[in-house]
């Protein structure tokens, strides 16, 4: 995507010198060699991403993108479409799960409407509406190619804005009734995964609803035949605007050397889209948690990422990533605040 490259610039390779400096420093801290396990590798990864041997990850920035899905009328979600707009309003009032966890970690928060069916009039909503809900993928494309590109562009810009506001790590989240259906279709299209293996119950479908959802994904893929080698085609035909925006935001953060802490199934499918658009973005991703949605384990494996937490969550909104944030913050505090054997006068081996 040429315009995207122009807008992003290059996503820089990892900073090996900073990583090496951190690795050496971690080995001088007052603890048995390697005893802080994954925290140690995380600290080194964060140095490689940011280019700083003593990285800072606070404050994190959380962007929640909201959009509706035409396919929601096909009985693929346990909840009705109007919940998307209602949850967007709830987010601006600070009452959603992600608001609570965002406050807990002192995060900057941004809520972006990229295509909710009914416009929400609230001062906290950033209005970047592409259209009122995507098309029903059982009958038509989710959106045009131009609209898909626009969703990515909005994501890039939103990330650049929150980074300019001071965010040191990016978390992307979403609300959009029906978006686990769209994410499953994207994942199947990009990886040829069998819908039976990756389609889950989303918000809590009954057995019957779950079977219907699998059939919907299968039929939508058979109708549109998205081109796996063309991520924009996949996004346009079976995706969603908030998923495109999340992919764009992930690219936008990485282009500023800002690490991305991934949430659940939907956010991680967006990350896979981003990786297919620009493979180097993979170096800037940390998996926050593993969601209950079966496709999440699959997409994490495809990306080669091991999640920090496994708490049986299935909420989305960025919630699992926000809950994982204190772990990455701990890794940076370890580097910055622990004494070394030399400074503390503790005997080395
Ligand atoms: C009250 C409520 C709050 C939510 N917050 C996130 N989601 C999550 O559930 C939806 C996806 O699941 P499905 O594909 O089954 O519709 C998305 O809105 C997602 O963000 C919610 C869902 C509900 C009902
Ligand atoms: O894993 C997720 O992100 C998820 C799962 C179910 C419903 N909403 C989000």
TrEMBL record:
Q: Name one GO molecular function term.
A: glycosyltransferase activity
InterPro entries for this protein: Nict_dMeBzImd_PRibTrfase, Nict_dMeBzImd_PRibTrfase_bact, Nict_dMeBzImd_PRibTrfase_N, Nict_dMeBzImd_PRibTrfase_sf
| Record: active site | 317
**Record field: transmembrane:** none
Q: State which Enzyme Commission number(s) the record gives.
A: 2.4.2.21
> What reaction does this enzyme carry out catalytically?
5,6-dimethylbenzimidazole + nicotinate beta-D-ribonucleotide = alpha-ribazole 5'-phosphate + nicotinate + H(+)
Tell me yes or no: is tRNA-binding among this UniProt entry's keywords. Answer: no
Please state what class of enzyme this protein is: transferase
What keywords were assigned to this record?
Answer: Cobalamin biosynthesis, Glycosyltransferase, Transferase
**Hey, which pathway is this one from?**
Nucleoside biosynthesis; alpha-ribazole biosynthesis; alpha-ribazole from 5,6-dimethylbenzimidazole: step 1/2
Q: Which domain of life is it from?
A: Bacteria
Cross-referenced Pfam families, in alphabetical order?
Answer: DBI_PRT (PF02277)
* Reported function: Catalyzes the synthesis of alpha-ribazole-5'-phosphate from nicotinate mononucleotide (NAMN) and 5,6-dimethylbenzimidazole (DMB).
Q: State the family named in the UniProt similarity comment for this chain.
A: Belongs to the CobT family.
Q: Which NCBIfam families match?
A: cobT_DBIPRT, PRK00105.1
Please give the name of this protein. Answer: Nicotinate-nucleotide--dimethylbenzimidazole phosphoribosyltransferase
**What is the native source organism of this protein?**
Brevibacillus choshinensis
Q: Which gene encodes it?
A: cobT
């Amino acid at each position: 995507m040429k315009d995207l490259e122009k807008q992003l610039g290059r996503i820089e390779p990892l900073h090996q010198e900073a990583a090496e400096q951190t690795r050496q420093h971690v080995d001088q801290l007052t603890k048995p060699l390697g005893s802080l396990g994954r925290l140690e590798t995380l600290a080194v990864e964060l140095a490689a991403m940011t280019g700083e041997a003593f990285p800072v990850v606070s404050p994190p920035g959380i962007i929640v993108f909201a959009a509706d899905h035409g396919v929601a009328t096909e009985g693929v979600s346990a909840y009705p479409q109007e919940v998307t707009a209602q949850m967007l309003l709830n987010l601006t009032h600070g009452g959603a799960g992600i608001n609570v966890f965002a406050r807990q970690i002192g995060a900057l928060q941004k809520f972006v409407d990229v295509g909710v069916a009914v416009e929400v009039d609230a001062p906290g909503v950033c209005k970047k509406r592409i259209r009122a809900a995507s098309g029903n993928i059982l009958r038509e494309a989710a959106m045009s190619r131009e609209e898909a590109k626009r969703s990515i562009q909005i994501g890039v810009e939103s990330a650049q804005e929150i980074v300019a506001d001071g965010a040191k790590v990016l978390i992307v989240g979403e609300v959009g009734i029906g978006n686990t259906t769209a994410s499953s279709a994207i994942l199947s299209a990009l990886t040829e995964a069998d819908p039976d293996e990756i389609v889950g119950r989303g918000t809590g479908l009954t057995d019957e609803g779950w079977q219907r959802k699998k059939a919907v994904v299968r039929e939508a893929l058979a109708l549109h035949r998205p081109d796996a080698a063309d991520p924009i085609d996949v996004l346009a035909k079976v995706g969603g605007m908030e998923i495109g925006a999340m992919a764009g935001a992930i690219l936008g953060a990485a282009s500023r050397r800002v690490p991305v802490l991934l949430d659940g199934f939907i956010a991680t499918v967006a990350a896979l889209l981003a990786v297919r658009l620009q493979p180097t973005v993979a170096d800037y991703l940390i998996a926050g948690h593993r969601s209950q949605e079966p496709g999440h384990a699959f997409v994490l494996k495809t990306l080669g990422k091991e999640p920090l937490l496994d708490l049986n969550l299935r909420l989305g909104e960025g919630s699992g990533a926000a809950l994982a944030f204190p772990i990455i913050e701990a890794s940076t505090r370890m580097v910055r605040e622990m004494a070394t054997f030399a400074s503390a006068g503790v005997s080395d081996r």
